[in-house]
Amino acid sequence: xxxxxxxxxxxxGPLASAHFMTRLTLLTPASIDQEHIPAVLWSDPRVxxxxxxxxxxxxxxxxxxxxxxxxxxxxxxxIAMPCNxxxxxFDKMQAHAKVPILHIADAAAxxxxxxxxxxxRVGILGTAATLQMRLYQTHLGALGWxxxxxxxxxxxxxxxxxxxxxxxxxxxxxxxxxAQALENLARRGAQAVVLGCTELPLAVQSGPVERLTIPLVDxxxxxxxxxxxxxxxxxxxxxxxxxxxxx
Length: 247
Prior knowledge:
Elements: E1 6-10, H1 14-27, E2 39-43, H2 50-54, H3 61-73, E3 78-80, H4 90-96, E4 101-102, H5 104-112, E5 121-125, H6 128-132, H7 135-142, E6 146-148, H8 152-167, H9 171-187, E7 192-195, H10 200-205, E8 216-218, H11 219-231
Parallel strand pairs: 1-2, 1-3, 3-4, 5-6, 5-7, 7-8
């Protein structure tokens, strides 16, 4: 029986948070209820828009800290946040928290090592805000990977629309634009792609994944695996999440 309680700071967006809980359950090696991870989901879609905040809009930090307090009051011993852009406030959140917050870029790097050696060229897909803050470019670059981003045209025509379609619950429509963005990164030499927005795995899985020929790191799965390792008191294991579109 696992006694550690995981807090999940969600709502950004709500479907990605629900999907994280599903993947956390499916990736946990368990045969009975009691072997699964106790978890508390705080899903508050009222958190101010993180992209707009970076352009001078309402700062989401107060809402994020309120969620941290609620999860800590519920007895959570660590927090996972299945939203990439919100990690722009990670340092301030961790300074406020009394428990560790699992960093999604650390989790993604652990999974990336399984499919692309440092030195490889890795594509990064994400919101314009996540790419602007260089969450993955800086982190993965420091670990030895060369990173490339979608062009401005690809962001406008494919990536941003795909994310918006998932948030609008139009999953089937979201596959074609994200598939095109992935194909364009592969043509530019990407040997793997990090799906650096938690809506993007949902877009990828909504269509014929056999069309995809480039290995992907699903940051929802990566964070779920990091959470499982924390809950079990182990280092991240060699357990591998389902690889979407692996070559």
